[in-house]
């Protein structure tokens, strides 16, 4: 409707304000009433001035015509307008280049067809990318806005990536002056039918535009395009994104910190919190900072001992046959868990690391071991990336009542909301309540440790290689003194329990069924772990620091801590479980 209104208004001006154009000695002269000329006359003047652009006064005339050029020409003369853009974008006059970029933006939003025509015009795209390298602030601002307008279609994003627009944007963001400490706020914004969190900045507009455009194009890259980004540029940009993410994540944890988009000193960007998380994810795929793999033999020696026959003996006599305790007395240099333990900065009496871990972690969504590509997985979860940990999915806080032998959850309301109203996301209050729960005898179980700590990821990758599996999952369990976390149960995968702190007494029962549980198979048709099992058919195993317990799939088990003191332990227990999913054979 606005476009039609502009066209009608232009026609009224043509009827009531006839214009005069003269050409004398090769120079164009405007009638003093230039402000009243119609669209066709302005375009004719512009075209003539461009044809004579070598003349000194032509550039001034081009600027005046561009000021008066109506938007309606995009619908009446689209081909003519597009044909002028390469010249405008390559001009050395900042105003002309800026105006050319503005026209690119308007045309990109005018229609899908116009957007694609611009995207496939190599000269226009080349000119726009060149403008991104301008030292003129006005040109850079206009070019960045044009890129954002073009990027509303996947075709345009692909063409921009192919023309190295991303590298120019990233470099521009790194070069433009910014506040030394970029302050951020989270703003709740209604986007279509959904409410999302967008990032507000107490910063001027230009660096935020450059950041926004960079994030959009990074999140449109395939693996090959990510690899083509210069390493130094990618890693420098990644460092800044991680610093920004730390501030965003802290804001997400705080309750009632959402800001109003009406606050004057806040520039609300179009960057959602998950957009930043996705960019970090993508740039980290090929980063040299990625987890270094532990040598195959180092992992095997640390877990199974020094003897050359230790692993072979385990596989022949215990794998999927019987539980097996490995008492470790390895040199610290051979302990693959030492790096993780040092990162906890824990004392012998108080697990002070709990809140720190929970505050600095995000939700890790389950990924199938047969996922064809990491970017395919990313497409499935991209709108949820970076959200705080989710109860039941990432964390459980529970204990087993000794009399009833059933599990009780500390966050009962959170558990109910997971089943009724969807996910319950933790905030800082929930994190602090975990310390309270621990003091009341509850075990804190955190899933996906291989995604949260590089040292654990390296161990998981090594164990996966040993057993020829695509991946190994790692969970952490922190249990207070004189307590039991999980009730008696069995798993559909094999488990290595690695005791890191304290001691824990395990009871492993004989397998109640000749058939081993299949991976992800329904456990309803198998005998439950609660079924009566003869005490004579169980083994009690005390795990001390450094010990490892192997439990085959299908073997019911439970574990508890004592009150410490008598055996010299701290009372509490910290262990990791490495879950090895044994894939079913082809049928």
From TrEMBL:
Family: Belongs to the ROX family.
UniProt region (Disordered), positions on chain: 1-24
One GO cellular component, as annotated: nucleolus
Keyword Nucleus (UniProt): yes
Cofactor note: Binds 1 Fe(2+) ion per subunit.
Molecular-function GO terms, alphabetical: histone H3K36 demethylase activity; histone H3K4 demethylase activity; iron ion binding
Annotated protein name in UniProt: Bifunctional lysine-specific demethylase and histidyl-hydroxylase
Superkingdom field: Eukaryota
């Amino acid at each position: 409707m606005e476009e039609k209104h502009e066209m009608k208004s232009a026609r009224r001006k043509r009827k009531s304000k006839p214009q005069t154009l003269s050409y004398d000695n090769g120079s164009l002269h405007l009638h003093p009433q230039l402000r009243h000329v119609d669209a066709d006359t302005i375009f004719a003047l512009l075209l003539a001035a461009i044809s004579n652009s070598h003349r000194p006064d032509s550039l001034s005339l081009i600027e005046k015509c561009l000021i008066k050029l109506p938007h309606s020409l995009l619908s009446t003369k689209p081909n003519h307008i597009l044909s002028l853009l390469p010249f405008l974008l390559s001009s050395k006059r900042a105003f002309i280049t800026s105006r050319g970029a503005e026209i690119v933006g308007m045309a990109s939003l005018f229609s899908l067809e116009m957007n694609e025509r611009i995207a496939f015009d190599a000269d226009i795209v080349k000119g726009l990318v060149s403008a991104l390298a301008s030292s003129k602030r006005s040109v850079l601002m206009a070019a960045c806005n044009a890129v954002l307008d073009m990027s509303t279609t996947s075709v345009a994003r692909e063409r921009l990536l192919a023309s190295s627009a991303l590298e120019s944007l990233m470099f521009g963001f790194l070069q433009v002056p910014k506040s030394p400490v970029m302050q951020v706020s989270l703003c709740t914004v209604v986007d279509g039918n959904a409410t999302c969190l967008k990032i507000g900045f107490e910063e001027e507009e230009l660096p935020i535009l450059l950041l926004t455009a960079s994030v959009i194009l990074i999140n449109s890259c395939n693996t090959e395009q990510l690899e083509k980004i210069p390493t130094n540029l990618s890693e420098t940009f990644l460092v800044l994104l991680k610093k920004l993410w730390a501030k965003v994540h802290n804001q997400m944890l705080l309750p009632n910190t959402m800001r109003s988009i009406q606050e004057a000193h806040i520039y609300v960007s179009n960057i959602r919190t998950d957009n930043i998380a996705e960019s970090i994810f993508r740039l980290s795929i090929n980063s040299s900072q990625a987890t270094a793999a532990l040598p195959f033999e180092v992992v095997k020696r640390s877990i199974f001992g020094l003897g050359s026959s230790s692993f072979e003996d385990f596989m022949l006599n215990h794998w999927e046959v019987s539980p097996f305790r490995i008492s470790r007395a390895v040199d610290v240099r051979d302990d693959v868990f030492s790096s993780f333990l040092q990162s906890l900065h824990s004392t012998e009496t108080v697990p002070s690391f709990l809140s720190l871990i929970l505050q600095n972690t995000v939700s890790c969504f389950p990924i199938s071991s047969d996922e064809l590509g990491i970017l395919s997985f990313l497409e499935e979860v991209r709108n949820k990336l970076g959200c705080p940990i989710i109860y039941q999915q990432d964390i459980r806080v529970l204990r087993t009542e000794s009399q009833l032998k059933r599990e009780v959850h500390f966050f009962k309301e959170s558990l109910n909301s997971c089943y009724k109203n969807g996910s319950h996301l933790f905030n800082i209050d929930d994190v602090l309540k975990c310390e309270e729960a621990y003091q009341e005898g509850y075990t804190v179980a955190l899933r996906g440790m291989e995604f949260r700590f590089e040292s654990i990821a390296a161990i998981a990758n090594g164990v996966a290689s040993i057993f020829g599996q695509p991946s190994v999952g790692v969970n952490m369990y922190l249990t207070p003194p004189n307590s039991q976390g999980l009730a008696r149960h069995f798993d559909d995968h094999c488990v290595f329990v690695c005791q890191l702190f304290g001691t824990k007494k395990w009871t492993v029962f004989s397998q109640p069924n000749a058939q081993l549980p299949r991976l992800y198979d329904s456990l309803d048709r198998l005998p439950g772990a609660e079924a009566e099992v003869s005490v004579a058919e169980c083994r009690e195993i005390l795990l001390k620091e450094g010990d490892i317990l192997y439990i085959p799939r299908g073997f019911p088990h439970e574990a508890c801590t004592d009150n410490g003191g008598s055996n010299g332990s701290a009372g509490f227990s910290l262990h990791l479980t490495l879950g090895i999913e044994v894939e079913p054979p082809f049928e």
